[in-house]
Amino acid sequence: MAPRKLAAGNWKMNGDLAALSQIDALITARPDPGCDVLICPPALLIQPMKARIGAHPIALGGQDCHARAFGAHTGDIAAVQLKDAGADYVILGHSERREYHKEFDVLVNAKAKAALTAGLKPIVCVGETLAQREGGQTDKIVGDQIAGSLAGLDNNQLKDMVIAYEPVWAIGTGKTATPEQAQEMHAFIRSEITESHGEDVAKAIRIQYGGSVKPANARELLSLPDVDGALVGGASLEVRSFTEIITNTLN
Ligand code: 13P
Q: Residue 165's beta-bridge partner residues?
């Protein structure tokens, strides 16, 4: 059976306490979303958002965590702290972390292990730059990111995880992968996981697409056979557009 789809909003470094009203609007707009809905706000907002969500079916996630459970790491957040605040997921290895914080697969892998230990579901982001795509390196780059980020994780751990394919050239640019490009990469990622962890795991793991997902293109992207949801940046900041994307995720 295909996994339940996941519509996730990555708020990045946007939003404040006043933005909590978006949660009320989201609940009102789709009290029964019909797919898994996740919001990854700035970490400071997780706890008040959780209080606002109550029993409604909206999950929360962090946007990064440290690989260690505690200690002298000024400015960092541990996975257990995210869990404690009310998160169930954490985004790891986002291309903005890879680029601006020089994160690499070994670190993403250590963070994924810390997240799983804390009871969080990691969303591991992978994706190639435009230069890498144009240089014919896409499969190699994404294949290496998958292998490095998932190294040493067993089948049970993997089933709980999410992979987000986010071509770097499509993030915040308004350029989206064509349905053919998205399907090709999602199928490639699933085949890599089939090879490393077997078919059952590859079928169970959710592979989201991210990169300029908007209400206008969501239906086409989300109906592709290997696309199990969307990781939405800009369009998740507005309840109206995020709700439209959630609606399209159901079909
Ligand atoms: P945009 O939807 O703004 O392109 O961002 C995608 C993204 O980076 C989600 O993690």
A: 126, 209
